[in-house]
Amino acid sequence: MSTLEELFSLEGKTVIVTGGAQGIGKVVATRMAEVGADIAIFDLQEDKARETAEEIHKTTGKKTAAYSIDVTDSAQVKKMITRADEEMQGLDLLFNNAGIVLHKSAYDVTPEEWAKVINVNLNGEYYMASEFARYLKGKGKKGAICNTASMSGHIVNWPQEQASYNASKAAVIQMTKSLAVEYCKDGIRVNCISPGYMYTELTCHVNPDWQERWMDLTPYGRYGKPEELCGAVIYLLSDSASFTSGTDIVVDGCFTAV
């Protein structure tokens, strides 16, 4: 193994990827398998999750599995982590990536809609992170967690109205820092990434006028690709980041820089 491969190797590690059936989760899961990790896909979409796990196994030869899970159900989260531990023969890392977005004015969003976004994006990530940390501590293992926040946790997006999403992602950044400080004594690192506008299933079908405006506001003048997030996630989960915790890496084509 070359020095470069050693720096970013996940060989011998097993990673849980939430929201891994499609989009960013699927792309990053595939790249992590390519650098040595076994992959456990956690996703509400059971059939898609299974297809993704099988595809990653076929293309990389790594061990994979798929689990149908609602991350907003804390009891289910605990049960599935236990099951994945047994079937994968141990877990080491978590890419905490499940999330939803609602484009709706704060004047019109209902309490139920607000609660759903917060429940998935914030509570779901918290339940996964906290139960995974308990798992690691209970096994006497060190490990790492990478949460998915967003540039929307740093700025207010425009022209779409999405206060619920922005609030949830800002909270993820602060939660990441808080958990990092609490868990460091047990050898558990917690970091997050804040993607900008990425071309995925969540963005490609929205209002074309919004998309044009987003590109005008992004100095790079284009969408990011999910592949452009892989390096940040792999770094944060790898042993190369052994002194990096409580950090948020913004990957946004300079959007938040201007």
Keywords:
258 residues; alpha/beta; Rossmann fold; 7-stranded parallel beta sheet; 45% helix; NAD(P)-bd_dom_sf; oxidoreductase activity, acting on the CH-OH group of donors, NAD or NADP as acceptor; SDR_fam
Low-pLDDT residue spans: none
Query: Quick one: biggest sheet?
Result: 7 strands, parallel
What's the shape?
Answer: globular
Give me the secondary-structure category. alpha/beta
What proportion strand? 5-15%
Mean pLDDT: 96
CATH class: Alpha Beta
Which percent bin holds the helix content?
Answer: 40-55%
Question: What is the H-and-E element order?
Answer: HEHEHEHEHEHEHHE
- CATH topology annotation: Rossmann fold
The CATH homologous superfamily: NAD(P)-binding Rossmann-like Domain
Distance between the termini: 41 Å
Q: How are the strands of the largest sheet arranged?
A: 3-2-1-4-5-6-7
Number of domains: 1
- The CATH architecture term is 3-Layer(aba) Sandwich
Instruction: Give the number of helices.
Output: 8
Oligomer: single chain
Q: How big is the Rg?
A: 17 Å
Number of strands: 7
Pfam families: adh_short_C2 (PF13561)
Protein name: NAD(P)-dependent dehydrogenase (Short-subunit alcohol dehydrogenase family)
GO molecular function, one term: oxidoreductase activity, acting on the CH-OH group of donors, NAD or NADP as acceptor
Keywords: NADP, Oxidoreductase
